[in-house]
Amino acid sequence: MYFSRTCMELLARLPELREPRALPKWLMQVAHHQCYRSKQQQKRTVSRDAEPGLPVPETPAIAESLIQQTQEEQILREATAALTPQCRRLVELLFFETPARPYAEVARELGLSVGSIGFTRQKCIERLRRHLDQLGSADARRRQRNLQGRIILAAGRPGRRCGSPAISFAPQNTSAQ
């Protein structure tokens, strides 16, 4: 914050600069003044956080859900980005496009035979699973297992999709895991 304010002040006053050697000291003074003004402003602001009896703000359940969904989407993006270009494209064509593309069209775009799409899909899903396993901590691994289960379910049913480019994840029953 102070850096950006100091830079803006420098840009605004650059035409007025007479002695280039004085610039470092001038920058230090401007940064000091910015900090001082900020401290003065903070003194004028009255915080009610320390008052007893104020309710503690709760995080809405939807926010937790959105955070988890965003984390899952990011894990999937990172794992997909680590795939070879052909595998990445195959996963995109089979699971992220709506409406579903026929195998013949996918095969033609990738330069493969229609009969090899299923085998290639299986190998790409296995690679994706390995990349998902390599990402994150124990908590992330739990989310990855849920994510993998949904991907594998979708892979087992050619007509089913994981979602559109803005991936949507349905809640999974994790009690069996």
CATH superfamily of the domain at 65-156: Winged helix-like DNA-binding domain superfamily/Winged helix DNA-binding domain
Order of helices and strands: HHHHHHH
- Coarse morphology: elongated
Strand content: under 5%
Description:
The protein is mostly helical and 177 residues long. The protein has a domain of 92 residues: Winged helix-like DNA-binding domain superfamily/Winged helix DNA-binding domain (Arc Repressor Mutant, subunit A, Orthogonal Bundle). It is built from 7 helices and no strands. α1 crosses α2, α3 packs across α7 and α6 runs antiparallel to α7. The longest helix has 22 residues.
Topology:
Layout: H1 2-13, H2 23-44, H3 61-81, H4 85-96, H5 103-110, H6 117-134, H7 138-156
Structure characteristics:
177 residues, mainly alpha, Arc Repressor Mutant, subunit A, disordered C terminus
